[in-house]
Amino acid sequence: MNTFRFLRGLVISAESECGRPGEPAADFNLCPAGDFMETVTAQQWIFYKFYFCKAGRTMTNGLVSVKRECRYDSDYYTYEWSSLNDDEKCVSRIQGTTEILLQ
């Protein structure tokens, strides 16, 4: 059972339909930031897993955090965590710039 936080701060222990999310691949350079849940109705909750870029890194779109959501796949009647896209990899902030060395 995971411990989730409501987006308003209340801490509870609950089990998401998706189970525990797998950790992102190392080349994403992400650190876990916490597990959260949000109430949609009295019987329906949405579970989230947040990650932050490791220090000194950002995504190519300038963001420093990403959210994975527990989703229901109606085609297969299964729950699964949303996957991370390649554009959500945290890269060095100076990537794409030219470094000039003075001698």
Kindly describe this structure.
The chain is mostly beta strands and 103 residues long. It is 0% helix and 49% strand. The chain contains no helices and eight strands. The protein has strands at residues 2-6, 11-14, 30-41, 44-53, 57-59, 65-73, 78-81, 90-92. A six-stranded mixed β-sheet has the order 2-1-3-4-6-7, with no helix packed on it. A two-stranded antiparallel ribbon has the order 5-8. The chain starts with a strand and ends in an 11-residue tail after the last strand.
Quickly describe the structure.
The protein is mainly β and 103 residues long. The chain is 0% helix and 49% strand.
Biggest pleated-sheet summary: 6 strands, mixed
**Average pLDDT number:** 77
Task: Give the overall form.
Answer: elongated
The order of strands across the largest sheet is 2-1-3-4-6-7
The helix fraction, in percent, is under 10%
The poorly predicted ranges are 97-103
Q: Tell me the number of helical segments per DSSP (H or I, 4 or more residues long).
A: 0
Structural class assignment: mainly beta
Into which percentage range does the β-strand content fall?
over 45%
The counted number of beta strands is: 8
**SSE order in H/E notation?**
EEEEEEEE
User: How far apart, in Å, are the first and last alpha carbons?
Assistant: 58 Å
